[in-house]
Structure formats: C-alpha cells, structure tokens
Design a protein that fits this description.
heterodimer; A: about 625 residues; alpha+beta; six-stranded antiparallel β-sheet; four-stranded antiparallel β-sheet; 18 helices; flat; B: about 180 residues; alpha/beta; five-stranded mixed β-sheet; two-stranded antiparallel ribbon; 5 helices
Chain lengths: ~625, ~180
C-alpha cells in the first residue's frame, strides 16, 4: 500500500516540477504573463507531494515494511528506532530523495525572500527544472519504492552508519550542498534578464551564506563522525568524498567575499556570477563522483553505470546551459572598474582572497581527479592521498592567512603601505613571539611549520580585536578559522599514540596519563553482541575518568565494529580503541592522547556562527 | 563576432567538455577489477616454501622455469577459491597445464581437508604461513593466478576466480603462445 502511494506521490511531484520548470519559462519568452503565476503554486504542490513520499518511506522504515526492497536492504526489526527513522538516507535511493526534498525546501525559502515577481518566477523555474531532472533520475534508475521480491527479513543498516553522527550529518551536509542551487538559480535568472544589480548581489549572498553555514556544519559533523567511528583518531582523510564537499565550500567562501565587493562597489560582477555558477556545478560534480563509483572511496555505495551516465548527462546539460548563458551575457555585464583603488585596499584583498581560494579549490580538484586522468590516458593506476594534499595546501593556507590578518586594517579604496604597516607591525611582532614561546613551552624544540602556523593564527586573532565591533560576522568566522588551524597544528605536533599489548591489571603510560586495564565483560544490544573493556585513567595518581571501549559484532550483517571511547576536554582528548584479543588474556589496544583536537570542531562551529551573524545582518538589505 | 572573442567563447567549452569526456570515458571503460601487476615482465621474486605433503621437499621459484605454468594463490578459508577448484581440476585434467599453488595464511589441517574435498590440482603446494611470499607477489586478494612463462617471468595476473570464459578469452590464448 505504502509502496503504491509512494510511487503516485513521486509521479505527482514530477508533474508539478514540470509545471514549475517548463511552462513559466515558455510563457516568459512567448509573453504569456498568466503562465508565470504557475511557478509558485507548483513549487508548493511539488514540496507537499515530495514530503508525502518522504513521510511514507519513513513510515515504512518505522514499521519495518519489508515489502519495499529499499527498506528490506537497509533496515531490520531489531534496529533502534532512532536509526530506523533515519535509515532512509543510509543508501543511494533514499539519500537522493532527501536531496530532492531539500532542494524543494530551498525553493520555498527562496519564494519567501524574493519580492520581485519576475525574478522569483524565473528562479523557481530553474530550480523546478533541476528538480525535474533529479526526479526523473530518481524514478528511472533509483526508485526507493520498488517492491521486494519474495519475503524479506531485512538486511539491517550498515553498522558504520549506526552512530548519532549519522542522524544529523547527512541532512546538514546536503542542505549545504543543495543550497548553492538557489544561488545558481538566482544568478542564472538574473543573467537571463540581464539584471545583475545590488539587490541580486544581496539575495545571492543571503542564500550563499545560508548554504555555506550548513555546509560548514555538515563538514564539521562529518569530520567528528569519522574521528569517533573509524577508530584511527584522525579527523580528515582527504578521501574523494570529503574533497567533494570541500570543493563547493571553498568556492562558496570565495563567492561570499566577492559578493561583498559587488554590493559595496558594483565591481567584479562577472567574477561573482561565474563563482555562483561554479559552486553548484561543483556540488553536482561531487554528487556524480560519489554516486557513480568512478572513484573508489569509503563512501561509495553502489556501482551502477546507468546512474553514472544519467548524472553525467545532467551535469553536462546544466553546466553547458549555464556557461552558454554566461558567455553570451559576459560582454554586457557592466562592472565598476577598480582603477582608482590602491593595490592594498580592501577591494584588492577581497579579490586576492577569492583567487587564492579558487587556486586551493583547483588544487584539491586536480588531486581528486588525477587518478582518473592518468587512468583515462593509460598512464597507470595511482592514488593521491594525504601527503600530496598536505604539501600543496600548506603554502596556499599560509598566504591566505597572511591576507586574513591584514583584512581588518584595509579600508575601502585608499590605503598606503605606511598606514597599513603602522597599524599592524606590533601585532605581527607580538604574535610571532607568542608563537615561538608557545612552541618552545609545549614541545621543547623549534618546529618551523608549527611556529609559522601558530604565529599566523595568533596574528589573525590579534588583528580582529580592533574590528570586533564594526565587523562582527567577519571577526567571528576568521576567529573560527584561526582556532581551527591552531587545533590542527597543535593536535598533530603534540599527539601521542601507543599501540600496546596489555592484559587486565597492567597499565600503560601515554602522555601524562596512566591507563590501567581493569578487565573485560560481555555486552549485548538490540542488534549486536560484544565485549566491553574497562580502563581506569589517572594523572599523577589522581583519578580522571573511566573509559569503556567496545568491540561489537552486528548480527544481521555479521560485521565487527570497534567502538572507541573518548574522554573529551578543552585541552586534550583521551581516546581508546580496543583492538584484537591476543593469547593469554592479552589484548591489543590503541591509546591516543590528543591535545587541542576539540579546537578543530570548535573553530568550525564558530565559523558557522559567524555565517549566521552575517546572514542576520544581510537580511536588512533585502 | 571577431576571431579573438570567438576563441574566448569556445575555450571554456573545450575545457569543460574535455573534463566530461574524461569522466564519461572512465565511467564506461575503467575496470577497477583489472589490476595490472607491477611485476609483469619481471622474474618471479625469489622464494622458498615448505610443502604440505612431504617435509623434505620445498617449493621455490626455480620450479617455475622451463615450462609455462600457472601460480595460484589461495586459502581454504576463501569461499571463492572453493568455487574455483573444480575449474583448476579441469585445467589439470583436460588442458594439462601445470598449476603450482601457494596456500596463503592457512592451517595444514584445513588445507588437507580442502584437498580431500575438491581434489588436488597442484603439482606443488607451498605453505605461505605468514603471507610473506604473497606480499612479494603483490597479491591483492585470494584467489589470484599468475601466468609464468618458461623463462620464469610473470606474463599475466588475474584477480578473482578463473572460470571458463576468462580461461577461453584471456588466459588460454596467452599460454598457447608459449606452448609452441
């Protein structure tokens, strides 16, 4: 029953996406004003039916209705309710449905913000076309409502996904990813009408900021989840799928900076337009890379060539159409020339910053696609990993951070080098000295990279003190970034880890902490069995905490999972992963002492808060 | 439109289409299953392994010279290897190609049970208890089969179980070249 109604809801949503996308565009060019009214009504119709489909699938998961193949493949009656309600986005079909639902939520949000009737209609029409394409893709190649063949017992949700992080990370990440579609549609609509004014810049910025904030949170949550679940104590692996989420983030950051320039000075319109188009193209490219299986990654769900072809065609059509419109309009874009501005003015810093971010984006894109390029040219099979990315990103990040520090001192238009130097030299000196002192106190040696990174981070923090009142959003995001960088560098420099062979009663010393292995006991959950080890952690004979890492076996999929236990703290995390049982009561255990690792996520959260502050400030302009 | 602006108009499309062409090509033609061994054209690395049957006989890389042969890396705990076994027996009985085996990280008792169950297709079977030889050979997963020419060089590597189709299309034509 659910299966039938779900199918019907999807087809009705497809119909509405057609009337939202195609008919208003046709009417706009043929001059039938009444067809324009259809866009907003259809957008609502589409959202209502998509939400119906979404709720039906969730109900099917909640009731373990295994007559639907997708539910049978990703759920089990013993799965806890929290995961049954969210298992919907545990595999390809459902996450694509979530993608489309979020796209339509953004469309409706757009209809509330945009007051200009024509701009609203055209933007909604473009969003409707995108939704139409993706609904065709969903119905034809990845329908979540297909009936199961024969009676099914349920294959359970992948145990890697059974973590609280799974409940919140995918929707946040998708909200960010898909949010750039609104900036794309608004910009494309403005290009079609050749009306790229300050209002366009403000509205695009509003949606770019909202999408960027969600994406920041999504990436942070993903990183936190990887840290907790994968059991290696790492927070970023330069996995192709992680890179795919970082690419639109970098392009989006550049877009937001350039849009400020458009708003204030009416300059760099063509660059801002291109960035808005690139952001969404990168989101689509990311979707293609993840879903088609051309790149081997921890996140790849299924390799189905039909899905890949469809997504590639979609990407090609959207990018070609956007690029054609852009290039036809390019000669008519009238930007203010920045001839009278000094090379160290705020305009130039904003432009330079966007260029640096795009260079960083292209560097990561190249590293991600390099194995594919080599393979296509028959030059061999390789994989590009963390060493490449760490080496090439370091100089780009350093240069960007120098500019970030100067940003608050740069005024619009006019600025002399002397003024700038007078404002900043003290802070530069203080931050370098503080950094050298900190590195010496923490590590008793002079690690050059650590000193440079730390002094640049402190330099950014010192420079925003002056700007806190005037530019709160910028101060908050830059502060967040500096704290994130401090977290990355200090946690990698001060990190201590030991892989020990240990039996109950023995203790191991990692950092200033002593870990005493008390013993093991059997545990059982609703869909797993396992062993829990208990450790008593002391520091200089004072009790700190007890930690209980687990080894679980998920019965339905017969998969063994390591569940780490972490004692979090502002200045350090204690992290234990239970390894394999060895002979004579011995266990192999990995113990990590990770100072300042929380700062990474704290920085990310601050950046998101900064994005929200910017959003609230920007709202007044619309 | 003059030629300069035409060029500016065309260039972005060329870049974008080159990217899409590459992605499309990868989508259709890339075969993640086909892993060319870095050892192709190289001599089999030196090794010497005890055999399961008689304690005084060892199996080493010298055994793999002077005739074209197959080297099969397998394990009794690997279910795909059990599925492959009847075909290995067919190669032994119908095509008369010598097959050498390496049991990867295995227990002698379970190897004996396996050989009783499926038959013994191997001329010699080495016991790679710790998997060192498999690492030297760059083994990706069991079962994996190498074609070794009379000079003792690896000419082909197949990942996964061999079946009639793979044999007829790929492996047997390679072997035939060396049998003349």
């Amino acid at each position: 029953m659910i299966q039938l109604f779900g199918q019907i809801a999807l087809f009705v949503a497809l119909f509405f996406s057609f009337t939202q996308g195609v008919i208003p565009l046709w009417g706009y060019y043929k001059g039938h004003p009444y067809t324009l009214a259809l866009a907003r009504v259809s957008a609502w119709g589409q959202l209502v039916y998509l939400l119906c489909a979404y709720c039906l699938l969730t109900i099917a998961f909640a009731n373990s209705d295994f007559s639907i193949a997708y539910v049978a493949a990703n759920s089990h009656p013993s799965l806890p309710l929290m995961y049954r309600l969210t298992a919907l986005w545990g595999a390809h079909e459902g996450s694509l449905l979530l993608w489309i639902v979020i796209l339509n939520l953004w469309s409706i949000a757009y209809s509330f913000v945009q007051k200009d009737h024509i701009a609203l209609t055209l933007g909604l029409a473009i969003l409707g076309l995108i939704s139409f394409c993706f609904l065709c893709f969903l119905i034809m190649t990845s329908n979540p409502f297909l009936p199961a063949i024969g009676p099914q017992a349920g294959h359970d949700l992948n145990p890697l996904l059974q973590d609280p992080g799974f409940v919140i990370h995918p929707p946040m990440l998708y909200a960010g990813y898909v949010g750039f579609s609104t900036a794309f549609a608004i910009t494309l609509a403005a290009l079609l009408r050749n009306k790229l004014d300050t209002r366009w810049a403000s509205i695009t910025k509003q949606f770019a900021l909202a999408a960027w904030s969600f994406l920041t949170l999504g990436i942070m949550l993903g990183s936190w989840w990887a840290y907790r679940v994968l059991g290696w104590g790492g927070f970023w692996f330069w996995d192709p799928v992680e890179n795919a989420s970082l690419l639109p983030w970098l392009a989006g950051t550049a877009l937001i900076h350039v849009l400020m320039l458009v708003e204030k000075r009416g300059a760099a319109k063509s660059w801002a337009t291109l960035l808005a188009l690139i952001c969404f193209a990168l989101s689509l490219l990311g979707t293609f890379l993840v879903r088609s299986g051309v790149l081997i990654s921890a996140h790849t769900f299924a390799n189905d060539p039909a899905r890949g072809i469809f997504l590639l065609l979609l990407l090609a059509i959207l990018v070609t159409a956007a690029l054609t419109i852009y290039l036809f309009r390019l000669p008519q874009l009238s930007s203010t020339a920045l001839t009278a501005t000094s090379p160290i003015s705020r305009e130039m810093v904003l432009l330079l910053n966007s260029a640096l971010l795009i260079v960083a984006m292209l560097t990561i894109l190249l590293g991600t696609l390099y194995p594919l390029i080599l393979d296509a040219l028959h030059l061999g099979t390789i994989s590009v990993g963390a060493p490449y990315f760490n080496i090439v990103m370091l100089p780009i990040v350093f240069v960007t951070m120098i500019f970030m520090g100067f940003a608050p001192f740069c005024s619009w238009q006019q600025q002399t080098l002397k003024q700038l130097w007078r404002l900043s030299w003290k802070r530069l000196a203080i931050s370098s000295i503080t950094a050298i002192a900190m590195v010496w106190v923490f590590t008793n040696q002079f690690d050059l990279i650590a000193i440079i990174t730390l002094s640049l981070s402190i330099w950014i923090i010192a420079s925003i003190i002056a700007a806190w009142r005037v530019l709160p959003a910028m101060s908050m995001t830059h502060l967040g970034f500096a704290i994130l960088v401090i977290g990355i560098i200090l946690s990698s420099v001060l990190n201590e880890e030991r892989e020990v062979r240990i039996k109950p009663g023995n203790a191991s010393l990692v950092g200033p902490y002593q870990f005493l292995f008390l013993g093991t006991e059997g545990i059982s959950g609703s869909n797993f069995r396992g062993i829990r080890a208990s450790f008593d952690v002391t520091k200089h004979h004072y009790h700190v905490t007890n930690l209980y890492p687990e080894k679980r076996i998920y019965l339905v999929r017969d998969m063994v999972m390591t569940k780490v236990d972490i004692h979090p703290g502002i200045f350090r995390d204690l992290y234990i992963a239970l390894g394999e049982p060895l002979d004579n009561d011995y266990w192999s255990v990995r113990i990590y002492y990770k100072p300042f690792i929380r700062w990474i996520w704290a920085g990310g959260i601050l950046m998101m808060i900064g994005g929200i502050i910017a959003l609230l400030q920007n709202r007044k302009k619309i | 439109m003059n030629s300069r602006s035409t060029r500016h108009f065309i260039l972005p499309f060329i870049i974008v289409f080159a990217l899409f062409g590459m992605l499309g090509y990868e989508l259709f033609y890339s075969k993640p299953q086909e892993l060319p061994s870095t050892l192709i054209g190289e001599k089999v690395p030196h090794f010497s392994l005890p055999t399961f049957t008689m304690s005084n006989i060892t199996f080493n890389d010298k055994n793999l010279t002077e005739h074209v042969s197959l080297l099969n890396v397998w394990a009794s705990w690997c279910s795909a290897c059990g599925m492959e076994a009847p075909f290995l027996m067919k190669i032994k009985n119908e095509y008369h190609i010598p097959i050498y085996g390496i049991a990867y990280k295995d227990q002698p008792a379970s190897v004996q049970t396996w050989l009783r169950q499926y038959g013994n297709p191997f001329v010699l079977l080495g016991n790679d208890k710790h998997g060192d030889v498999a690492i030297d050979l760059g083994v990706y997963g069991t079962p994996e089969t190498f074609v070794i020419n009379p000079a003792g060089e690896i000419v082909y590597r197949h990942v996964g179980a061999i079946n009639q189709q793979v044999w007829d299309d790929v492996i047997y034509p390679i072997i035939k070249k060396y049998m003349e």
